[in-house]
Amino acid sequence: MTTHTLSNIKISVLDLAIVREGGNASDTFKNSLELAQQAEKWGYTRFWLAEHHNMPGIASTATVVLIGHIAAGTTTLRVGSGGIMLPNHAPLIVAEQFGTLATLFPDRIDLGLGRAPGTDQFTAAALKRDEHAAMEFPSNVEELQRYLSEGNKNGRVRAFPGEGLDIPIWILGSSTDSAYLAASLGLPYAFASHFAPAQLHNAIAIYRRNFKPSAQLQKPYVIACVNVIAADDDYNAEKLATSFKKMFLGIITGNRKQLQAPVEPDEDFMDPMEEAALQQMIQFTFIGGPEKIKKELDNFIEITQIDELMVTSAIYDHEARLHSYEIVSQLNK
């Protein structure tokens, strides 16, 4: 069996369309497009956008619209959702939207599906999300697959455009439930280890052990998403990472803000209990210069034997963020 390392697996980008303090959504969208264009040049495989709602620091609410924007500004990069929170949407609408994207950008669109609301309970209610929606996720995935299939030509409800298009569906997850579903449907699996590290190893094992080949996929395929803050040296990476740590601290405390400017690494901005909770949540976060990043990512890839590494980087300065992704791409050669 080939040993997977950073230099021989695919790498991809997860973009949350983060809005930094002092900026706005317009700036964010311009920066996302530039990142996608550079990622394409640097050899990244895909560029996914996440669906979130009611968060002042994240602008990827209209995920499908942003996917179209990024795909229109690139030529070879695969662009998709990481993911569409399916219980927020009717499967037919998703089939039509992604059918439209796949018609506009053939062989370049990925459809990643998640079961979480991507927001708080009050916003979920405003989205008209049914309280039983998560339980219906497996059947909704199968309904969506049916709309996109050639076999639905005699169906009473059909997706135009969408029907018969080869749009890869991915199951996203942060728990073992998603692993069982991806395995049973024979779909590729992307795990959100960048914010939910606890069940990564168990979920991957379950997925591989229970995988059933399908028309889309003959053998298991796993992406793990991790946080990477890379710079020319360890000190500067640690400084850049203070913005990222403050963002996650806001998630833990419920005090969400736009992405803050970095501070000195030794500045005390959280108490010991907050730091312990933070470290548990960001277990799979890699911060440092090229040598440190390569060593730690190689170790992570060797242990998990993932097929593809997805990187997300919450860095305040746009140029520094671009440079972080460039460093990872150079280590991938």
UniProtKB/TrEMBL annotation:
Pfam families: Bac_luciferase. One of its GO terms (molecular function) is oxidoreductase activity, acting on paired donors, with incorporation or reduction of molecular oxygen. GO terms for cellular component: cytosol. SUPFAM superfamilies: Bacterial luciferase-like. InterPro entries: Bact_Lucif_Oxidored, CmoO-like, Luciferase-like_dom, Luciferase-like_sf. Gene3D superfamilies: Luciferase-like domain. Residues 13-300 form the Luciferase-like domain. To bacterial alkanal monooxygenase alpha and beta chains. This is Luciferase-like monooxygenase. It comes from Flavobacterium seoulense.
